[in-house]
Amino acid sequence: MMLLEIAGLETFYGRSQALFGVDFAMDEGEVVALMGRNGMGKTTTIRSLCRLTPCRSGAVRFRGKNLEGLKPHRVARLGIGLVPEGRRCFGNLSVMENLLVAATPGPWTLDRVNRLFPRLAERRNQMSNTLSGGEQQMLAVGRALMTNPALLILDEATEGLAPVIRQEIWAAISMLKTEGQSILIVDKTLKELLKVVDRCTILERGKSVWTGEPSALSDDIRDRYLGV
Ligand SMILES: Nc1ncnc2c1ncn2[C@@H]1O[C@H](COP(=O)(O)OP(=O)(O)O)[C@@H](O)[C@H]1O
Ligand SMILES: [Mg+2]
């Protein structure tokens, strides 16, 4: 059974159609990139699969279960941990409280998250709205891990961060990969992204147009769909 199967996804914002047929699937333990230029539908695909912006047609199956009709918190409870674009934490909670409210039994505990991101341990009693952007991003990843997700989704998790912080996030991602964590990633840093992913799906104007391994991503395809 596949971990995640997305077929024929069409999603609208009011009357405006954003997705015109997105298809891709991932296996347990795979790390998959969702790629494409700005505005091509990456975030909308993620929001649709988490049912934050439900699709109008098409299907999302997670471990064989159709997610149709589920509320986002139910999807989260099935084992999908989202680090959304723009890293939202509860600003009026401390770092430790932010992590603890997300806790679900499993291998990821407060201790382990603190070992992964020692900066979070140093700042454990600080209100999260006083953290730097990079620390907030680590907290957002830490919170998602505290839910012990079967699938971790990272939407632009390194966007706008200082280079050293980006490196810490990428190091955490490769560590998670070696532990067999399934991850769906959107990120603009192609060099780092292609080092860590097993497969890529490219979106163009709300449609999936190419799927393959990073080694098959030719200059022609990069040129046509990624603008690099
Ligand atoms: N909240 C929204 N309301 C209306 N249109 C939106 C909204 N969010 C995104 N869109 C539109 O949907 C399309 C896909 O956007 P998005 O999924 O955010 O792309 P990406 O994440 O690939 O940059 C774009 O045309 C964008 O303008
Ligand atoms: Mg986006």
Automatic annotation (TrEMBL):
SUPFAM superfamilies to which the protein is assigned, alphabetical: P-loop containing nucleoside triphosphate hydrolases
Signal peptide positions (record): none
Keywords from the UniProt entry: Amino-acid transport, ATP-binding, Nucleotide-binding, Transport
Sample GO molecular function, one term: branched-chain amino acid transmembrane transporter activity
Annotated organism of origin: Flavimaribacter sediminis
Organism superkingdom: Bacteria
Protein name: ABC transporter ATP-binding protein
CDD domains for this protein: ABC_TM1139_LivF_branched
Pfam families, A to Z: ABC_tran
Annotated InterPro entries: AAA+_ATPase (IPR003593), ABC_transporter-like_ATP-bd (IPR003439), ABC_transporter-like_CS (IPR017871), BCAA_Transport_ATP-bd_LivF (IPR052156), P-loop_NTPase (IPR027417)
Protein family according to the UniProt entry: Belongs to the ABC transporter superfamily.
GO biological process terms, semicolon-separated: L-amino acid transport
Location of the ABC transporter domain: 4-228
